[in-house]
Amino acid sequence: MIQLLDFLKTRAFAGVPLGSSPEALKAALGEPTYEYTDTFAHTLEYGLFEFAFSPKSRQLYMIHTQDFEVPTLGNTQELDPWVLTAGVHILDTMKAADEEGLQYTYDPENLTLKFASGVDLVFYGDTPATSTIYSIEARDMALYQGDLEG
């Protein structure tokens, strides 16, 4: 079972860090639910998660999911979402992160928890007490920019 908490700690999903190849991700997760290439990226989808690879060098530069009840990887792998299910509030998530000893900063303007690993949790709502989880994302735009410049 893949632990979402491990992703928050390391920014490596199922042990696959940003900068990895599509083949490395497939070796860890199996065949994707959906795969496509457009002008901007080569993308592998596993359930509700999108893994975007730079168009030329095919390096993993972004892992993203949003607007979910419970984050899943489809039928490919089981995922332990930790506390990150629909309706979890930012304050509850901060408390759970503190209990795990996770380092993060809180961006109150954008209702975002920015973990030291480089994973961001974005919440929506009017106040911290009412804001609930919206998206989970890790990205390294330098990998993407390198393809555009090179």
Strand and helix map with partners:
Blueprint: E1 2-3, H1 4-10, E2 12-13, E3 16-17, H2 22-29, E4 34-37, E5 42-46, E6 49-53, E7 60-66, E8 79-80, H3 90-100, E9 104-107, E10 112-115, E11 119-124, E12 132-139, H4 141-149
Parallel strand pairs: 1-8
Antiparallel strand pairs: 2-3, 4-5, 5-6, 6-7, 7-12, 9-10, 10-11, 11-12
Provide a descriptive summary of the structure in words:
- This protein is of the alpha+beta class.
- 23% of the residues lie in helices and 34% in strands.
- The chain has helices at residues 4-10, 22-29, 90-100, 141-149, and strands at residues 2-3, 12-13, 16-17, 34-37, 42-46, 49-53, 60-66, 79-80, 104-107, 112-115, 119-124, 132-139.
- The protein has an 8-stranded antiparallel beta sheet, sandwiched between helices. The chain has a two-stranded parallel sheet with strand order 1-8. The protein has a two-stranded antiparallel sheet with strand order 2-3.
- The longest helix is centred in the middle third of the chain and has 11 residues, at 90-100.
- The radius of gyration is 15 Å and the shape is globular.
List keywords for this structure.
150 residues; alpha+beta; two-stranded parallel ribbon; 4 helices; 23% helix; globular
Oligomerization: single chain
Global structural class: alpha+beta
**Helical percentage:** 10-25%
Q: Reading side by side through the largest sheet, how are the strands ordered?
A: 4-5-6-7-12-11-10-9
Largest sheet features: 8 strands, antiparallel
Rg of Cα set = 15 Å
Beta-strand residue percentage: 25-35%
Question: Roughly how many Å apart are the termini?
Answer: 38 Å
Shape: globular
Count of extended strands: 12
Average of the residue pLDDT scores:
93
Given the structure, what is the number of helices? 4
Residue windows where pLDDT falls under 50 for at least 5 positions = none
